[in-house]
């Protein structure tokens, strides 16, 4: 239903685009006009693809699938979008979109939260990064995708490390479990996971660029990444409040507040690029250090001032509730200011990422089986991480860490841009992201409901034993699955 709707929409926009583009090319301002048309179509397609949310799936999945459809319309003889893939303006907007996305993720993360979740979340994050990376880079990657450039395996392993916490958080929230120990461990571990994943990305990107894989080089790049993040946090804590105070003396309006925040994010992205790291590492670091207190010298938004003046005559209890809501809005005001920019740019990145997938490579049964094998590894690596969840339900934590989304796609896109990740490997990673995104919400919902039923029955002395995760059983099942996939791949 979802795919057929997106396919019909893609055909409509593709045919309309061909007609409009042929007219635009004859116009005197053809190049600019067609670029405007492309941006409009990409945005409309991305927003139409949010239809998947009605089926319980995240909008990023719809944007990705829509991009896959648009990018492969040439198979049906519709070539309009082939030019989009190489347009410098569109590619720049997509790259800016991913920088804004990581800046947002940094803003929504908090260093204090990382400390608060404790050792279980740290252990879950460490295992959830190390195990998938080692499996993808050194074991399953060479097994299922032999004879590739060693750097391709590094990017494959890196793409397996990142967790898309937004998908899991939505499931926990919908079921009223956001405050549960399992949810807190997953959310905390996912933030730490992002930091580790970005450090791995910095290392593998530098290795791919320099072509050197000596231990000294790896150690130097890793140290550089840690020092950049630590230095950003320290310098940010020192200079961000002072910059906020300085610029508030010029103007305390929302425009100045927005410009200061976005400029800090872009400057950090530039600084990361200058020292050989990915710009998204700098953007994430900038978002991580920016705190609402750094903007305390700026005026509150107009709506906040209006509400505060309007509730003066309201009874104290109601006024207190309104003030609490207003304070929450004020606290998140930077995120809310950045969000409209993200609405414009981030969907372009995901649609363009989907357009990079070549469906003709997926017609090869060997590639499909390889994608399934990599998906098994993606599941296994995070399920093993759930074993470190302490007294929390290990299976729920493990499945909560499984979805791969934005960051995994970013890793694959960067590897492709460096000429390391081939069309086949890129398609395998995208299929893995789609499967992990599609399968996790229903499985996690089932496990959470089962846990709720078990808890209620235990409280009535009719309890069922909780479902425990056996690492031996997981590894045994996964090894057999991988051996079976390898045999099928060789036969095909």
Blueprint (SSEs and pairs):
Blueprint: H1 2-25, H2 30-48, H3 59-71, H4 88-108, H5 111-116, H6 118-144, H7 150-159, H8 165-174, H9 181-210, H10 215-248, H11 254-274, H12 279-289, H13 302-310, H14 316-331, H15 333-355, H16 359-362, H17 365-385, H18 394-400, H19 406-417, H20 423-459, H21 471-491
Helix pairs in contact: 1-2, 1-3, 2-3, 2-15, 3-15, 4-12, 4-15, 6-7, 6-9, 6-17, 7-9, 7-19, 8-9, 8-20, 9-10, 9-18, 9-19, 10-11, 10-12, 11-12, 17-18, 17-20, 17-21, 18-20, 19-20
List the defining traits of the structure above.
492 residues, mainly alpha, globular
Describe the structure.
This protein starts with a helix and ends with a helix. By secondary structure, it is mainly α. It has 21 helices and no strands. It is 76% helix and 0% strand. It folds into 2 domains: 1-86, no CATH class; 100-491, Na+/H+ antiporter like fold (Up-down Bundle). The longest helix is centred in the C-terminal third of the chain and has 37 residues, at 423-459.
Task: Give a summary of the structure in a few sentences.
By secondary structure, this protein is mainly alpha-helical. It has helices spanning 2-25, 30-48, 59-71, 88-108, 111-116, 118-144, 150-159, 165-174, 181-210, 215-248, 254-274, 279-289, 302-310, 316-331, 333-355, 359-362, 365-385, 394-400, 406-417, 423-459, 471-491.
Q: What's the rounded overall pLDDT mean? A: 78
Write down the domain tally: 2
**Which strand-content bin applies to the residues?**
under 5%
Poorly predicted tracts of residues = 23-30, 462-469
**Sheet of most strands:** none
The shape is globular
| Helical residue percent band | over 70%
CATH fold-level assignment of the largest domain: Na+/H+ antiporter like fold
Quantity of strands, as a count: 0
The count of helical stretches stands at 21
What string gives the helices and strands in order? HHHHHHHHHHHHHHHHHHHHH
Helix/strand class? mainly alpha
CATH architectural grouping of the largest domain:
Up-down Bundle
- Termini, distance in Å? 30 Å
Q: Report Rg.
A: 24 Å
**In CATH, what is the class of the largest domain?**
Mainly Alpha
């Amino acid at each position: 239903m979802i795919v057929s709707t997106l396919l019909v929409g893609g055909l409509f926009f593709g045919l309309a685009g061909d007609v409009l583009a042929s007219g635009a090319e004859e116009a005197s301002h053809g190049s600019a006009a067609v670029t405007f048309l492309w941006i409009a179509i990409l945005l409309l397609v991305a927003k139409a693809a949010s239809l998947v949310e009605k089926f319980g799936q995240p909008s990023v999945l719809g944007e990705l699938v829509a991009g896959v459809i648009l990018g492969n319309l040439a198979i049906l003889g519709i070539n309009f979008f082939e030019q989009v893939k190489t347009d410098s303006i569109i590619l720049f907007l997509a790259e800016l979109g991913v920088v804004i996305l990581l800046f947002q993720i940094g803003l929504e993360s908090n260093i204090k939260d990382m400390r608060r979740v404790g050792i279980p979340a740290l252990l879950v994050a460490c295992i959830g990064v190390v195990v998938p990376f080692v499996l993808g880079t050194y074991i399953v990657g060479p097994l299922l995708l032999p004879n590739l450039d060693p750097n391709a395996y590094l990017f494959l392993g890196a793409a397996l490390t990142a967790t898309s916490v937004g998908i899991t958080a939505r499931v926990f929230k919908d079921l009223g479990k956001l405050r549960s120990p399992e949810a807190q461990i997953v959310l905390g571990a996912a933030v730490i996971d992002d930091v580790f994943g970005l450090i791995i990305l910095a290392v593998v990107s530098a290795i791919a660029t320099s072509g050197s894989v000596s231990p000294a080089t790896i150690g130097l790049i890793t140290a550089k990444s840690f020092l950049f993040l630590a230095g950003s946090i320290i310098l940010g804590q020192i200079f961000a409040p002072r910059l906020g105070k300085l610029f508030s003396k010029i103007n305390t309006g929302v425009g100045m507040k927005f410009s200061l925040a976005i400029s800090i994010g872009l400057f950090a992205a530039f600084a990361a690029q200058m020292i050989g790291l990915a710009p998204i590492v700098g953007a994430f670091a900038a978002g991580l250090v920016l705190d609402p207190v750094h903007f305390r010298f700026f005026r509150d938004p107009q709506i906040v001032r209006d509400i505060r003046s309007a509730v003066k005559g309201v009874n104290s209890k109601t006024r207190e509730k309104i003030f609490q809501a207003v304070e929450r809005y004020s606290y998140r005001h930077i995120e809310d200011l950045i969000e409209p920019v993200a609405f414009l740019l981030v969907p372009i990145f995901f649609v363009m990422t989907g357009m990079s997938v070549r469906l003709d490579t997926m017609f090869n049964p060997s590639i499909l089986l390889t994608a399934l094998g990599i998906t098994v590894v993606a599941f296994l690596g995070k399920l093993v991480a759930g074993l470190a969840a302490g007294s929390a339900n290990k299976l729920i934590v493990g499945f909560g860490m499984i979805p791969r989304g934005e960051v995994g796609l970013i890793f694959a896109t960067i590897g492709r841009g460096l000429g390391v990740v081939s069309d086949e490997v890129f398609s395998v990673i995208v299929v893995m992201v789609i499967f992990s995104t599609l399968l996790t919400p229903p499985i996690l919902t089932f496990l959470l409901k089962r846990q709720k039923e078990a808890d209620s029955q235990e409280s009535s002395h009719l309890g069922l034993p909780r479902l425990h995760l056996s690492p031996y059983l997981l590894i045994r099942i996964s090894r057999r699955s991988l051996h079976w996939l390898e045999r099928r791949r060789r036969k095909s």
